[in-house]
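Comment thread on ticket #2218

A.B. wrote:
> Attaching the input chain for the structure job we discussed in standup.
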Amino acid sequence: MNLYSAIDTYKKISILGMSKNSGKTVVLNELIDICKKKKRIVCLTSIGVDGEGRDIVYKTKKPKIYAYEGTLIATSEEALKSFSAKYEIIDILPFSTCLGRIVIVKIIRDGYVLLAGPDSNREISQVSDMMLTLGGDIVLIDGALNRKTQGSPSITDACILSTGASLSRDINITIKKTKHTVDMLSLNRVEEDALNKINSLNSKNVLLIGDNTIDTDIKTSLGNEDEILNRIDKNIKYIYLPGSLTGTFLNKIKGLEVDIIVKDGTKIFVNREDYDSFRVAGGNIYVLERINLICVTQNPTSPFGYYYNPDVFLQNLRRALYPLDVYDVLYEGVGV
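C.D. wrote:
> Ran it. Output below, let me know if you need it in another format.
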């Protein structure tokens, strides 16, 4: 799906980054410009800080976020000091961050803004709904470094993944890592029977699912791998993890003829080698909610002084990720 169509189709869109300097802000500004042309009232927020003129980690220059009159923004009190845009405060929310309380403001004169939104998915979802209630047409949620949880279906209707040369000097490694992330974000939904068993318990614990469902009273697989392993028998078909899935846990259960269920693809922290090994051994990973990944964008330049041929990068990404759409906003436009 192209960016123009996305604006017409969805109410909440997240832009996720494979790494710092992956081109997220360029994509966000392009979406903001499309909304202006379509006369849509934009709402902006983020997990973490974005929109600063210089990268906090690498001290390199980066594009700023430009907001137009009428835009609604949920950000922190401290971030307001960096605005060149003029604004009025609409509401002060009971959400605290290291940069102060979260406030909703309305832009009354165009200019640059700094996004430093809530710290949790629940709060992101709440402020997004608040801004839509205040008259916004679409919410654009800017992801932070390695915070792909913002692509979760619990807070967004669709997401865009940004990747780029900053991942690696080797174009093939960047494509491989991007393909793996896309695969994890696009995992299939679990069968209805298992889904119903999980929903009926409404538990926040690790569940063992077979003919019957066992609530283990274990909150996370982290550090509890052996305890969970010891409770698996031949009647267990699935293990449901309410939190993250790691490569350590995946390797522990490899070959046991049991599949894994996680909430969605943002909960998976497993490299390609461990995933492929698990699949070869007969295992599968399923999700309760499938993420709606609508396209990938590329940034062929790195702030560290090297770059890829943009056409080669684009064509190779498209081959690797087909049938998912891939765009380079600066090199070829937005895919009208």
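A.B. wrote:
> Thanks. Noting for the ticket: Residues 188 and 286 are 6 Å apart (CA to CA).
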